[in-house]
Amino acid sequence: MLRRVVEQIFGVALRIFFRRIELDGLSRVPSEGPVMFVLNHPNALIDPAFLLCLSPRPVSFLAKAPLFKTPVLGAIVRAFDSIPVYRRQDEGGARVDNQDTFRHARELLLRGRAVAIFPEGTSHSDPDLKPMKTGAARIALGTGLEDLTIIPAGLFYTAKARFRSDALVYFGAPLSVPYAPLDARGEPPPGAVAALTRDIDVALRAVTLHGDDHEILALVERTSEIFAAASEEAWSVAEAFELRQKLLTGHARLRARDPARLDALVARVLRYERDLAELGLGPDHLAPHNITFAASLRYALRSLFALGIVFPLALAGTAIHYLAYRISGMVAARVAGQFEDMLATGKLLAAMTFFPLTWLVVGLGAGYAWGLKAGLVAGLLFAPIAGWAALHFWERFATVRAAAHGLGLFLVRRNLLAHLSDERRAIRAEILALADVVA
Length: 439
Fold this sequence. Notes:
alpha/beta; Glycerol-3-phosphate (1)-acyltransferase; eight-stranded mixed β-sheet; 13 helices; 8 strands; flat
């Protein structure tokens, strides 16, 4: 029961923190039988929360041992049938023994359960994957199961530490586990472990974004946004991820084949971004041919109506939750320090603490002033609903403000807006042409 409660609470919290969450490749996940998920690890406790709360089947995670000793978190990881993994860095560099860990994981797999593990061994913000640990291969080979399937699952975040960004869980092509003879301790031979670890590394790279440095990843991110905006179509998170993968591959190939043409494209992208920044626009700005007076008027009237209807409730929600929102951000920044991969976890856990406390204070205040029923309604219904209204009001307001800015530029600097639109299409065309060159 605790697991179901935690799943529901964290599931709701994740869908509030992230604007869009997508699970792609679910058809590759077997509905029954032993399965091992192997995942990259860029976002601390957010990463396991996705699979634990949104996986098509129950999963038991291998988690670092210190979590089991942490108040509250310890109860949560135990509720999910997690298995402690002992690491040297957690034990002051002392030698560790994970034989019981591997035995427990194998027992779950032998019972047809699903187990998940982070082969990198630690959460991080490096541009590339860390070297794979051998634990996943040792567990898988040690089961001796012929029907065990390894599913690589890539975790992708458009901005992993930012509130209301997008996230994707991308399930890749399954790996079969070859037979390997076991020694007297039930351990597979080192050669088989090394070979399967290499296969896991290749499979995980196929479902993740990784580059030589952060600068290249940032360039690819911005270029993909320009390319997608030029298509004037709505893109799913999975499509945006696949586009970035292709751009990363193309960047590496073009750097080797035609660096001069690549540098010219990069310079063009940078000039375009500089022009956008001077006008306060994003790459998704409307082209002049998409702007008409009638359509703008209809959009303005609909937006004003929608914003006007929810404004009183949103104003109350903003007043109620603003302090908790700010405190959550400050606490998360203090806890995360220089570790960006911890920031989203800090924000989520802080918000899950301070927002309910805020609702409790509102309920107690209303109950003191108007009685028990009023307190229950205020704390359990009014405050959360007002918070939801505030969230959607300010998101819609930001969209309306951006649209109004674009319309203003259309009216006073239409030729410049047309030039930017043409340049965006030209950059997209050049990328497509370069794709043909490196294909």
